[in-house]
């Protein structure tokens, strides 16, 4: 198996839209535990924000004992934490839903992984205190624009329930892969919420507000909601934890192969526990075999896996992968359809031809 890193060839993001910029990671060429800045997928609802000053301040207010404004230097001087975490767009693989749904038609590349350094939000809230009535924490970014369903200027804002906000691994991040956070990925500060889909990891954080009620912003109450029915809101649920999932990176779908030995390789991830097993089928799901995990599973991170395939009979083959995790979950045969196309996690499928 060859990759662009081994051959010296270059990989590029796969463009979906230019303004706002939405681009996929070429996931079939990623064979490391982290994705470089240039290949990390980009998901935006609005154009990139413009900072009018090089000075940066982050305010924390609302239901706190003491409102406070932190400079970037003060935040970077606080005790830090570093963790490896997947960021997956909730719409990753949306293009595979049947029947098709409206929205960005992501394939398999609206997912990346990095090593994030920052300050636990819990640590920062110790400086302000949190009142007993607090139920949620709202994060407002600097990015704004006009939504298609309104004529009002809207800032991208999301909230976390207080217990998730106070989890020690919920980070206010300022570094990515050992370097300052790139502007297109949220510089100078972004939220990192491990285990949740990436809409929760708000970029370009402008302010943080603690509230005593359910946040009703449009990116929480309208978007990033599972609507199981096409024509009504009955049974709707918020999008939160990432579903168990896997992706075959090599071979590439519709690739033509020679007879002989091949490596089937991919990644698997989950928002609950860790990945424990990967099964691969080379006969369309009639029989399954266990793949080898390339490294020990880590909480919050994807695991890379490989399966050695010996094939000497020419013809067309359907290759499948499915993951299992420590909390008992198993990747399903079919994803749960919803009209906004979130959380696609059906068994991954490719077809190859052996000549």
Automatic annotation (TrEMBL):
<dbReference type="InterPro" id="IPR014756">
    <property type="entry name" value="Ig_E-set"/>
</dbReference>
<dbReference type="InterPro" id="IPR036374">
    <property type="entry name" value="OxRdtase_Mopterin-bd_sf"/>
</dbReference>
<feature type="domain" description="Oxidoreductase molybdopterin-binding">
    <location>
        <begin position="45"/>
        <end position="218"/>
    </location>
</feature>
<feature type="domain" description="Moybdenum cofactor oxidoreductase dimerisation">
    <location>
        <begin position="239"/>
        <end position="353"/>
    </location>
</feature>
<keyword id="KW-0479">Metal-binding</keyword>
<dbReference type="Pfam" id="PF00174">
    <property type="entry name" value="Oxidored_molyb"/>
</dbReference>
<keyword id="KW-0500">Molybdenum</keyword>
<dbReference type="GO" id="GO:0030151">
    <property type="term" value="F:molybdenum ion binding"/>
</dbReference>
<dbReference type="GO" id="GO:0020037">
    <property type="term" value="F:heme binding"/>
</dbReference>
<keyword id="KW-0560">Oxidoreductase</keyword>
<dbReference type="GO" id="GO:0008482">
    <property type="term" value="F:sulfite oxidase activity"/>
</dbReference>
<dbReference type="InterPro" id="IPR008335">
    <property type="entry name" value="Mopterin_OxRdtase_euk"/>
</dbReference>
<dbReference type="GO" id="GO:0043546">
    <property type="term" value="F:molybdopterin cofactor binding"/>
</dbReference>
<dbReference type="InterPro" id="IPR000572">
    <property type="entry name" value="OxRdtase_Mopterin-bd_dom"/>
</dbReference>
<dbReference type="InterPro" id="IPR005066">
    <property type="entry name" value="MoCF_OxRdtse_dimer"/>
</dbReference>
<dbReference type="Pfam" id="PF03404">
    <property type="entry name" value="Mo-co_dimer"/>
</dbReference>
<dbReference type="GO" id="GO:0006790">
    <property type="term" value="P:sulfur compound metabolic process"/>
</dbReference>
<protein>
    <submittedName>
        <fullName>Sulfite oxidase</fullName>
    </submittedName>
</protein>
């Amino acid at each position: 198996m060859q990759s662009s890193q081994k051959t010296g060839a270059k990989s590029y993001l796969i463009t979906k839209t230019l303004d706002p910029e939405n681009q996929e990671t070429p996931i079939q060429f990623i064979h490391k535990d982290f994705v470089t800045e240039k290949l990390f997928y980009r998901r935006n609802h609005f154009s990139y924000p413009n900072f009018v000053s090089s000075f940066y301040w982050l305010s924390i207010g609302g239901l706190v004992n003491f409102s406070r404004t932190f400079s970037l230097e003060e935040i970077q001087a606080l005790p830090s934490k570093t963790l490896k975490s997947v960021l997956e767009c909730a719409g990753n693989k949306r293009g595979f839903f049947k029947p098709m749904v409206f929205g960005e038609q992501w394939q398999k590349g609206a997912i990346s992984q990095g090593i994030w350094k920052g300050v636990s939000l819990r640590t920062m809230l110790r400086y302000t205190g949190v009142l007993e009535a607090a139920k949620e924490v709202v994060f407002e970014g600097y990015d704004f624009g006009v939504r298609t369903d309104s004529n009002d200027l809207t800032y991208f804002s999301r909230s976390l329930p207080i217990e998730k906000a106070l989890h020690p691994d919920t980070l206010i991040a300022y570094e990515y892969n050992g370097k300052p956070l790139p502007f297109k990925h949220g510089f100078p500060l972004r939220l990192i919420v491990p285990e949740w889909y990436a809409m929760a990891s708000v970029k370009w954080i402008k302010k943080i507000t603690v509230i005593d009620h359910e946040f009703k912003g449009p990116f929480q109450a309208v978007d990033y909601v599972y609507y199981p029915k096409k024509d009504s809101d009955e049974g709707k649920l918020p999008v939160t934890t990432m579903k168990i999932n896997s992706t075959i990176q090599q071979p590439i779908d519709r690739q033509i192969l020679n007879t002989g030995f091949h490596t089937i390789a991919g990644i698997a991830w989950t928002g609950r526990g860790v990945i424990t097993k990967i099964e691969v089928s080379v006969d369309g799901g009639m029989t399954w075999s266990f793949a080898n995990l390339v490294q020990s599973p880590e909480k919050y991170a994807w695991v890379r896996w490989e399966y050695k395939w010996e094939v000497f009979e020419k013809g067309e083959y359907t290759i499948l992968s499915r993951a299992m995790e420590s909390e008992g979950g198993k990747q399903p045969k079919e994803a749960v359809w919803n009209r906004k196309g979130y959380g696609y996690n059906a068994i991954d499928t490719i077809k190859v031809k052996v000549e």
